C-alpha cells in the first residue's frame, strides 16, 4: 500500500530531468523530483566555493530549449537573466591564440591575424555550419520524439530526420581541405569533444553532430550569472509553482513493479512506497533495471537493449587563485592546448568564474574581490595513460604553461574525483606553504572520491549515429532523459529526450492532452 501518489517521479537533477518535470507540472501532472545522489554544483572548502563540474549553457539558442521556455511562459524572464558571452571562447596554445567573438567581422580579423593562409577555407566551413544548423533548427522545432520508438514515431521522426544534411557524411567531408596538422582543426574539434556525451574523437563523430555542436559554441553563447545554479533554481521554481515537489537530497532505493509495469518507488528512509504513474530517469536503462532488481524488464529490452560503456569521465579541478594570477583578457570559456601532444598532458577546458556569485553569503564575502574561481576540466579515459590520482597534477601542469605565475598565487586547489586531500595555501614570508585537509573534514562532500560525469560508447547506435538508448525505458512506465539517449548531441540531446518523454506521458493521459490543447501558450512569441 502506498502512502502517497504522484503522477510522475523524476530521478535525478540533470537539465533533461528538470526540464521534463517542469513541462509535466505545467501540464497539471503531480510531479516529484528526487536528486538521486546527484550532488549540487558547488561545495565549500575553508569558506571558498568550489565546483564539481563545468557548465556551459550551449542549448540557450536551441529550438528545443526555446520551446520548453515558451510553454512555461518564461521567455521574457529567461532573457532578463542571461547575457551573451564575448568572446564566446578562446583556444590557447603555446605558439598561437585565437578568440572566437560573436561578431563575424571581428572573427575574420582573428583568422587574418593567426591563420591568414586558410581564410577562404574557414569562410566556406562556417557557411556549411550555418546551413546545417539552419536545417537542424527547422527539424528540432517540430513536435516529434527523438529518437523514435513506435512505428508511427519512426515514420514521423524519420521523415523529419531525412531532411537533415550530413547524415551520411564524415568529419573528413567538412575538414578535408584543411592541412592534416593545421592547428585550426583544434579550434573546430576541441569545443565539440567537451560538449558531446559520446566518447569518440571529433574525427570519428557523426558529421552532423560535429557541425551542430560547433554551431552551438559559435552562433552565440548565453550565460547565466551563477551558471548551473541559476538554471536549476529556475526549473525548481517552475515545478513548485505548478504544485510539484522537489527533494534534491532524496533518493529512491527501489522501483516498485507490479504486473509488469512500474507503480511506484521506495524512498530512502521510508517504510511505505510512493506511488507513481510514470518514472523518468536521468540515468541509464541499466541503472533503472538494477533499481527494480530486474523485475518488469521487457523481453525486447533484454534482447535488443544497446550496450553502453563508460569509457571516459569529466575530471574537474577547482582553483581559488589571487586575481593577479589571471590575465584580464582571459575569457570565461577557454581551451588550453599543452606544449606538445602527450596523453599525460591533456587539453584543459577552463572556466573563469566570479567567485563572489558562488559564495553562500556573497554580499559579505570580503575576499571575493581579491580572488577568482577557475574550474578546469579534462577528459580522462577509464583506461588511459593517466590515473585518477595523477589527474590533478596533470591539470596544473597544463595551466602552468599558460599561467606562468599560477603557483605564486594559489589559495585552494581541489578535485572531488580523486579522493585526495584538498590543498590550501598560506603565505609564510616570501613563500607559499601548502596544507592538506583530508576529505573527511570537509563539509558537503563525500569522504572518498565522487564519481565523474561519464562519456559513453554505445553499440549499436541509431538515428545516423546520434542516438543510443530509447526514450522509453526497459520497464513499461519508465522513461530516459539523460546523457545516454542522444549522447552525440550533448546538452541539446537531453532536452530533446525530455520533450519526447513529456510528450509520451501527456499523450497517455487523454484528459490532460485535451487540457494542453486548450492552454494559452500560443501567446508566447519567443
What does this structure look like?
Helix 1 (15-26) packs parallel to helix 10 (228-241). Residues 522-526 have low confidence and may be disordered. This protein has three domains: 4-38 and 56-78 and 248-304 and 461-523, FAD/NAD(P)-binding domain; 103-219, no CATH class; 309-441. Helix content is 33%, strand content 24%. Strands 6, 7, 13, 14, 15, 16, 17, 18, 19 and 20 form a ten-stranded mixed beta sheet that branches. Strand 3 (42-45) and strand 4 (48-51) form a beta hairpin. It is of the alpha+beta class and 526 residues long.
Task: For this entry, give a set of tags.
24% strand; alpha+beta; FAD/NAD(P)-binding domain; 3 domains; 10-stranded mixed beta sheet; 526 residues
What layout of secondary structure does this protein have?
Layout: E1 4-11, H1 15-26, E2 31-34, E3 42-45, E4 48-51, H2 63-71, H3 75-81, E5 82-84, E6 89-93, E7 96-100, H4 104-114, H5 119-140, H6 151-161, H7 171-175, H8 184-195, H9 207-218, E8 222-224, H10 228-241, E9 245-247, E10 252-258, E11 261-267, E12 274-281, H11 285-291, H12 299-304, E13 307-322, E14 333-336, E15 348-353, H13 355-358, E16 371-381, H14 388-402, E17 410-414, E18 422-428, E19 431-437, E20 453-459, E21 478-480, H15 490-507, H16 510-518
Parallel strand pairs: 1-2, 1-12, 2-9, 6-14, 12-21
Antiparallel strand pairs: 3-4, 5-8, 6-7, 10-11, 11-12, 13-16, 13-17, 13-20, 14-15, 15-16, 17-18, 18-19
Amino acid at each position: 500500500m502506498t502512502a502517497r501518489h504522484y503522477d510522475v517521479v523524476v530521478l535525478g537533477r540533470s537539465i533533461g530531468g528538470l526540464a521534463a518535470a517542469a513541462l509535466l507540472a505545467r501540464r497539471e501532472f503531480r510531479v516529484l523530483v528526487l536528486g538521486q545522489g546527484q550532488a549540487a554544483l558547488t561545495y565549500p572548502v575553508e569558506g571558498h566555493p568550489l565546483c564539481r563540474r563545468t557548465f556551459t549553457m550551449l542549448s540557450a539558442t536551441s529550438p528545443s530549449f526555446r520551446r520548453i521556455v515558451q510553454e512555461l511562459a518564461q521567455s521574457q524572464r529567461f532573457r532578463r537573466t542571461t547575457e551573451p558571452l564575448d568572446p564566446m571562447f578562446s583556444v590557447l596554445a603555446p605558439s598561437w591564440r585565437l578568440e572566437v567573438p560573436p561578431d563575424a567581422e571581428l572573427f575574420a580579423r582573428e583568422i587574418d591575424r593567426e591563420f591568414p593562409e586558410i581564410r577562404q577555407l574557414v569562410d566556406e566551413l562556417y557557411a556549411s555550419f550555418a546551413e546545417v544548423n539552419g536545417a537542424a533548427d527547422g527539424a528540432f522545432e517540430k513536435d516529434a520524439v527523438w529518437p523514435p520508438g513506435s512505428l508511427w514515431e519512426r515514420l514521423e521522426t524519420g521523415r523529419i530526420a531525412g531532411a537533415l544534411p550530413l547524415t551520411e557524411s564524415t568529419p573528413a567531408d567538412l575538414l578535408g581541405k584543411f592541412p592534416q596538422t593545421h592547428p585550426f582543426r583544434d579550434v573546430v574539434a576541441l569545443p565539440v569533444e567537451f560538449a558531446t556525451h559520446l566518447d569518440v574523437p571529433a574525427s570519428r563523430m557523426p558529421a552532423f553532430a560535429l557541425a551542430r555542436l560547433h554551431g552551438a559554441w559559435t552562433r552565440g553563447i548565453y550565460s547565466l550569472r551563477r551558471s548551473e545554479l541559476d538554471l536549476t533554481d529556475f526549473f525548481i521554481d517552475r515545478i513548485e509553482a505548478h504544485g510539484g515537489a522537489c527533494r534534491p537530497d532524496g533518493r529512491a532505493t527501489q522501483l516498485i513493479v507490479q504486473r509488469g509495469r512500474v507503480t511506484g518507488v521506495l524512498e530512502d528512509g521510508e517504510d511505505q512506497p510512493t506511488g507513481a504513474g510514470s518514472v523518468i530517469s536521468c540515468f541509464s536503462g541499466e541503472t533503472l533495471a538494477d533499481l527494480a532488481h530486474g523485475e518488469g524488464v521487457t523481453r525486447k529490452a533484454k534482447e535488443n537493449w544497446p550496450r553502453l560503456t563508460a569509457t571516459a569521465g569529466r575530471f574537474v579541478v577547482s582553483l581559488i587563485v589571487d586575481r593577479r594570477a589571471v590575465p584580464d583578457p582571459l575569457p570565461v570559456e577557454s581551451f588550453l592546448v599543452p606544449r606538445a601532444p602527450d596523453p599525460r598532458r591533456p587539453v584543459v577546458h577552463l572556466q573563469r568564474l566570479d567567485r563572489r556569485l558562488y559564495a553562500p553569503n556573497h554580499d559579505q564575502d570580503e575576499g571575493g574581490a581579491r580572488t577568482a574561481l577557475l574550474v578546469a576540466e579534462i577528459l580522462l579515459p577509464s583506461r588511459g595513460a593517466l590515473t585518477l590520482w595523477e589527474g590533478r597534477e596533470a591539470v596544473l601542469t597544463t595551466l602552468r604553461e599558460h599561467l606562468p605565475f599560477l603557483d605564486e598565487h594559489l589559495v585552494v586547489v581541489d578535485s572531488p574525483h580523486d579522493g585526495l586531500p584538498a590543498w590550501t595555501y598560506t603565505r609564510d614570508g616570501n613563500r607559499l606553504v601548502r596544507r592538506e585537509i583530508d576529505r573527511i573534514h570537509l563539509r558537503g562532500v563525500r569522504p572518498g572520491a565522487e564519481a565523474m560525469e561519464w562519456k559513453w560508447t554505445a553499440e549499436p547506435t541509431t538515428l545516423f549515429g546520434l542516438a543510443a538508448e530509447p526514450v522509453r525505458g526497459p520497464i513499461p512506465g519508465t522513461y530516459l532523459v539523460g546523457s545516454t539517449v542522444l549522447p552525440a548531441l550533448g546538452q541539446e540531446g537531453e532536452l530533446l529526450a525530455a520533450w519526447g518523454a513529456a510528450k509520451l506521458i501527456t499523450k497517455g493521459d487523454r484528459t490532460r492532452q485535451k487540457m494542453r490543447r486548450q492552454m494559452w501558450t500560443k501567446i508566447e512569441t519567443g
